[in-house]
Amino acid sequence: MSDEPARARQQKPTAKAVAERSGVSVTTVSRVLNGRAEVIPEETRERVLVAARELRYRPSSLAVSLRRGYTKTIGLLVPDIADAYFHQIARGLEDAAWAEGYTVMLFNTDRIAEKERACVEVLYDQNADAVVFAGGGVDDDAHLRDLPWDLMHVVTVGPHKLPFPSIRVDDVGAVALAMDHLFEQECQHILCITGRESWLINSERTKGYRQGLESHSVPYDPALVINGSFTVQAGYEAVDRALDSGLTFDAVMAFNDYTAVGAMQALTERGLRIPDDVAVVGCDDIPLASLVSPGLTSVSFPQYDFGRAAMLAVLDHAAGRSVAPVTEFPYHLKVRESSLRRAAGACRSGHEHTESRNKEE
Amino acid sequence: MSDEPARARQQKPTAKAVAERSGVSVTTVSRVLNGRAEVIPEETRERVLVAARELRYRPSSLAVSLRRGYTKTIGLLVPDIADAYFHQIARGLEDAAWAEGYTVMLFNTDRIAEKERACVEVLYDQNADAVVFAGGGVDDDAHLRDLPWDLMHVVTVGPHKLPFPSIRVDDVGAVALAMDHLFEQECQHILCITGRESWLINSERTKGYRQGLESHSVPYDPALVINGSFTVQAGYEAVDRALDSGLTFDAVMAFNDYTAVGAMQALTERGLRIPDDVAVVGCDDIPLASLVSPGLTSVSFPQYDFGRAAMLAVLDHAAGRSVAPVTEFPYHLKVRESSLRRAAGACRSGHEHTESRNKEE
DNA sequence: CTGAAAGCGCTAACAC
DNA sequence: GTGTTAGCGCTTTCAG
């Protein structure tokens, strides 16, 4: 179909073209199209509008942005868009962005420091109106130092070291709530499968684990804590290793649902029954939790709202309104079969425990 | 921290600033930074570089794009980023894009005609270098008419009516392969749960279903075909309805994995055993397929490669190279427990059937 | 070797 | 009411 270098077979119509066609200046075109209602006579207005329509003219965002100083784009940094935890965050953000005429640029960082940094630089170059960090930060934020933060708007979702508005939940309380539930189910020895030590979210959830133990006067046993990486594989291996080393436990507290599902697989393969031999609880309540069998009990967070709230925070900032340094959302425990022991006392099937704290927005 | 309208507390350093600081013109700054090695004396070069570093100068992509005529951005349109089918496509695309210095703008269309159209318009406005349609089109593409296609680069992933390079697999053959497998497992009555009738991918897969029947000389029975919507819910309801209406079937061919999982839930609840009473096969082989129990047999597609290939096609086009109108990728059947009947003949557990066609790229 | 000037497409003072 | 002018920040002829 094309022979030439295939670049621009044709030119995009410009305001100038519209101006020529309607016999006015580009200024007038701009004014008409932007509704700068400086009492432009209906006749002129109409002429311009017609010309624009005939030419299928659409203003170049590039030029507008350069001129006006904002781009109506925001960057979203996620470790991996394939991780279900980020789906509703991304949807919530994109939906809200779309509603406000903003465009979302997506970046997968794999939590690699260098890539994270490079993404921020790209967004700076692109003049993105804001960057949203999803997924929680790491304890060492050296890679994020010396970036032109004073020239950018940032919002974080989850715990982060960067001093910017943060959308999150009380992760400590969330895990503590799950622990309460396990104790209610008469569990005694709770194996904890964490994420990577350097992740801030991991520290938070670990605090929740310990707090849960404390409030039930159960001593902390380091042997019961195994590091994972928020993957199915890691959960599987953690349980495998725990069983191999002869550990005794009657519950698993996993810091995310993939880990929990991996744990369930390993338990099942080893002939242990869930929940009667071992109860399992995860975090995040991704859709997967309701699709495995037995259904996985999990602490549920309003991820969609996180995304939405992040966008709203960006808008507030852009409008010069003040943004709360921390917006904490409620969470609740979604109880399913993986933790509902017949032996235990309060065992209403389908029962759902909900507890909220610091509701906002 | 800020009192003023909070807009730009500070200015981004510009090439002009660098020029002033190093006592040269912006032209020279541009030349040095872009390596236009017009034998610029090392001394000058160094001065500019130092000034740029000190000012933390980074060229504005906006201005560069306006000037050069390309933006190094591409738009990705997916029905819903929460659908696992799109994750690896998105990752593959973003990974390849990142490697080439491109940025991906993400849009969720929910397959809503108006939104799809609006996304394209936004991308046109933004001067995106290309737009990638993922997920297959619909039979009525009226909403996509009269868009300035001659000024855009487009790549589709999956069957599409738009006359642009397409990355895909032979969906007919893929489903036919799954059907062969079911017949091998000695299934006789195969319930088919489809997607929406208007989706092109649905027509393709339906052809595969019929082709599968034909090659085994089994008459087509419309009663065995139930429309779904590629959701768990739809799969569940389809089986529910089928059983309620007294249909007899010993296998389910679902056109995607969510549907298949929903079907499995309904079957299990009704006391039917999988695969011995009813074998189940899905399409897409999303991670979920391996996490449910029994494991779901599914036709596997290289989604990551789709995304990657889409990006490569964009690059080829941008470089003036020719792009194949259709790039077909291979597929294979990932056999798991949901379809492996003890009763059947060839029943090696873990066995994996692979068949490829039209490998390319 | 380097700078002045033009211009990408648009908006916004500032005239007339 | 509407056009002229001056840029937004950059690249790129074209002179010197």
How many strands appear in the DSSP assignment of chain A?
A: 13
**Major protein interface:** A-B, 57 and 57 residues
At CATH's second level, what is the architecture of the largest domain in chain A?
A: 3-Layer(aba) Sandwich
Q: In sequence order, what are the helices and strands of chain A, one letter per element? A: HHHHEHEHEEEHEHEHEHEHEHEEE
Oligomerization:
homodimer
| CATH topology assignment of the largest domain in chain A | Rossmann fold
What does the overall shape of chain A look like?
elongated
Could you describe the largest sheet of chain A, including whether it forms a barrel?
7 strands, mixed
Strand order across the largest sheet of chain A: 7-6-8-9-10-12-13
Radius of gyration of chain A: 26 Å
Helix/sheet category of chain A = alpha/beta
Task: Describe the overall structure.
- 2 copies of one chain form a homodimer.
- The model of chain A is unreliable at 1-8 and 346-361 (pLDDT under 50).
- Chain A is of the alpha/beta class and 361 residues long.
- In chain A, the strands form 2 sheets. In chain A, strands 7-6-8-9-10-12-13 form a 7-stranded mixed β-sheet, with helices on both faces. Chain A has a 6-stranded parallel β-sheet with strand order 2-1-3-4-5-11, sandwiched between helices.
- The N and C termini of chain A lie far apart (54 Å).
- Helices cover 39% and strands 16% of the residues of chain A.
- The first copy, chain A, has 12 helices and 13 strands.
- In chain A, helix 11 (288-291) links the parallel strand 9 (279-284) and strand 10.
- Chain A is elongated and about 85 Å long.
- The first copy, chain A, has helices at 15-22, 26-33, 42-55, 61-68, 87-99, 113-125, 171-184, 200-215, 232-244, 257-269, 288-291, 303-318, and strands at 73-78, 103-108, 130-134, 154-157, 166-169, 190-193, 225-226, 251-254, 279-284, 297-300, 326-329, 331-334, 353-355.
- Chain A folds into 3 domains: 15-59, lambda repressor-like DNA-binding domains (434 Repressor (Amino-terminal Domain)), CATH 1.10.260.40; 71-169 and 304-328, 3-Layer(aba) Sandwich (Rossmann fold), CATH 3.40.50; 171-301 and 331-357, Rossmann fold (3-Layer(aba) Sandwich), CATH 3.40.50.2300.
- At the A-B interface, helix 4, helix 5, strand 2, helix 6 and helix 10 of A face helix 4, helix 5, strand 2, helix 6 and helix 10 of B.
- Strand 2 (103-108) of chain A pairs antiparallel with strand 2 (103-108) of chain B, so a sheet runs across the interface.
